[in-house]
Specification:
This protein is mainly α. The chain has two domains: about 35 residues; about 30 residues. The longest helix has 23 residues. The protein starts with 11 loop residues before the first helix and ends with a helix.
């Protein structure tokens, strides 16, 4: 949980900026988005294979393969 305490004389914009950076560092939004929809075990496995294949293709393109 991100907790931000106001510093003396600090503007709200600075407080908000520190809060946003804290949320980003904790990975709270990514975790929330990942848990928004349910994926079965098979769907997760297929998505993982798809990501791996895409990653492999981009690596091959960078090396001059394909």
């Amino acid at each position: 949980m991100v907790q931000v305490i106001s510093r003396p004389g600090e503007a709200f914009e600075g407080l908000l900026r520190r809060f946003k950076s804290g949320v980003e560092k904790e990975g709270i939004l990514g975790d929330f988005k990942r848990h928004q929809t349910y994926m079965s075990r098979g769907e997760k496995a297929r998505a993982k294979l798809k990501r791996a294949e895409r990653k492999r293709r981009t690596r091959m393109k960078r090396r001059g393969g394909l």
